[in-house]
Specification:
Number of helices: 3
Radius of gyration: 14 Å
Shape: globular
Strand order of the largest sheet: 2-1-6-5-4-3
Oligomer: single chain
Number of domains: 1
Structural class: alpha+beta
């Protein structure tokens, strides 16, 4: 697999996950994560795929209902043929809003399992203005 093809495959996972977000589909989002995936964000620690699914299910039933996301990959790096790290900048646009509520810088770690790229870890931190 060429680097360009691998980049597209890895970034395709994120695109697909955000399509599931736009549809408000927590199950489809969770399918993009490994069983033992971790998510770390301010105030959030999800230790596995089921916790990720539950987080999004609750969010889509509440404050994330009708929200969209903006995510701009800044860098994709590979560590062997089956591990990739994506650094991105993005945020959530809540329903009825026209701008990101809080911009974040995110680190995505993806692994290839049985030929499929999945998210093994995600973390983000706020981008401070200025």
């Amino acid at each position: 697999m060429t680097t360009m093809t691998a980049d597209k495959a890895v970034l395709g996972v994120l695109d697909s996950m955000y399509s599931a977000w736009a549809a408000g589909d927590a199950d489809a989002i969770a399918r993009h994560y490994t069983r033992d995936a971790t998510v770390v964000m301010p105030g959030v620690f999800d230790p596995d795929r089921e916790a990720v699914r539950a987080f999004f299910a609750a969010g889509f039933a509440g404050r994330l209902k009708g929200s969209t996301t903006i995510d701009e990959p800044q860098q994709v790096r590979f560590y062997g043929p089956d591990t990739a790290v994506v650094i991105s900048t993005g945020g959530i646009v809540l329903a009825g809003q026209d701008s990101v509520m809080r911009q974040v810088r995110a680190t995505w770690t993806l692994v290839r399992q049985d030929g499929e790229w999945l998210i093994a870890a995600y973390a983000n931190a706020p981008v401070e203005p200025g």
